[in-house]
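Self-study notes.
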Amino acid sequence: MIDARQLVSLMVAYQQASNASKTIDTANRVLQANPNDVRALALLAYYYRSLAAQGGADAAKNADLSTQYGQKGLNALSNTPKPEGMSSADFTNFRSQLTAIFDGAVGFAALQKKDMALAQRDLREAVQNGSQPNISDIYPLATADLEANPVNPEGFWFAIKASQLAQGSGQQQILEYARKKYIRYHGSEDGWNELVNLAKSAPSIMPPAGFLVAAAPPPPPVSVQAAQIVSTKAPNQMSFAEWQLVLSSGNAQAANTVWNAISGKTVRLAAYVLAATPLQVDLAGNADDIDTKTADITLRMLQPLTAAALPQVGKVVTFQGKISSYNSSPFRMTFTSDGGQWGIAGQTMSQQGGTVGASAQPLPDSGASQNTNVLSDSPSIAPSMQGAVQGSGQSSSLGRFTHGMGQCTHSEYQPGRLWIVNSCNTAVAVMFTSDSGNFWGETDVGAGDRTMVSTMGMGYDPRKDGKVYLFTCPKGSQPVAPDGNVWLSRSYKGEYVCRQ
């Protein structure tokens, strides 16, 4: 009969021999003899975290086991006495190393489950207790900080530190991710380069005491925003989101200006279908409402739609109808349509090989409002597209706009990693999102090159996030909605063009 000490020695020997199956089997036997053996708990916590990072069908189960063994390890470690013959300094170092493993396992699993508060707490402990800088803890911590609501600005520091530990193009990818997050948080790029230099030159992985990044000032009251929009843009050049903001702002003067201009007009819009019957279609046009699946558009049919003409729930469609009324709170605009040429125009989304087609067809000028962008959640002023853009996939000139380059890129998934591959001989800028809307971002990909956008099991999970959608433009330009609005919601999977 092998005693507990012999089992621990055997477990260590298997680990040193890189025999994973024997190591894990022996670790479980050690825990049967002593459920609080911290070495065995550390091995199992680390092992299941590694499996969870690889993704696959058992990723969620492995993340749960990672949490289970990590938490058991933290509890056991607090009651573990110093072994005989071990110095106090060595015991302190031993505890710190195991704490980093246990907290890293718990924090990583929490990040996979989008529990940002728990992920931030435990991953910070893991980074702080690590015997040496470890990108597999530092980068997840940066992500947990920067994807949280509200953002924890320490994430900018940790992202810069992670970039120093990354290999090859990963360095620039992490920095670019953090830079774009910085601009959204701070309101501009001012101070970014100085922060990068400060963090890179600092000897400590941890940010200095009192570290802060100033957040952008809050937007003005909605009533003031409404007045600003009306004073700078004609109602027939506004997006649907801007109509909604003005009409629900409580600013009666601004609302009357917009309503008097658009009431009774026939317009073409794109929106997300929430429910459909032969006589009524409920849609979401504003990006926030798409995210929450809240109807803000009612399309009433003057003639019943046939079964074949009913739009599919969960898809983006274009329709044309006459604006007849609206309710300001909760906001909903009602359109009427005869169900024929001006009814449901069909799905605008073109999916092939994980990419989204680059066609946009603004309504020809016939006296109607040319508001084609209804999927923007930004109240900022945006130029309108003039003239039809055909979805050829070629990059022909349209003044400040070009067609998308969806034919150039596709996504490739390997266990734990997601790549965006560029098959064209020109560099591209790519925005990406997923069916879930939880995995999204942007990156550049060199000519004939590929870029990794999800690694170490972080970010993309094919079982939870589904299909990946790519919005591809020549490098130096930006994917925008068909009316030129630069803010695309993470739920947006419709048409786009490229703004130079």
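Second protein, same conventions, sequence then structure:
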Amino acid sequence: MARVTRLGGGQPLQPPHWLEGRALSYGAALPYWTIIQLLKADLGLSDGDPEVRGPRRLAPETQRATCEEAADVSPYLAHLLGLKLEGEDAERLAALDSETLKYQVLVGPPAHLRRPAEQQPVVLVCEDLHWADPSTLDALGELLALTDTSRCCCCW
């Protein structure tokens, strides 16, 4: 324990921020399902929450990033979570072609989770990925890249 504390700069160890997601047996029909579950776990949302709760939970969470990062990531996370966008964000997404939107959806979750990983270790646990769709696997690959640059551990 002393060695781990020393490696951490002498600061007390913080428990990790634990996020879990699971692919479903019919998951091939649900793109990004596991990623959505990880984001909902991070935001404290459940599948049964009313849609109005999502934007309220997403707004303060995106403020963990700088204002510029939050503006860049927030609409794509909202889109991924199936939240209704309005105003400038809705116009921005409508103007994107499908490949650009896919790219933004892929890089949004890692950008969102990078900031909490600076504050405390983040553990991403994903189960039953043999059922995951290709878009989920692509997004998990992007999340895996977080392990190179932040205190993030991926278990799948």
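Instructor comment on the second fold: The helical segments are 2-7, 33-43, 53-62, 67-80, 87-94, 98-119, 134-144, 146-149.
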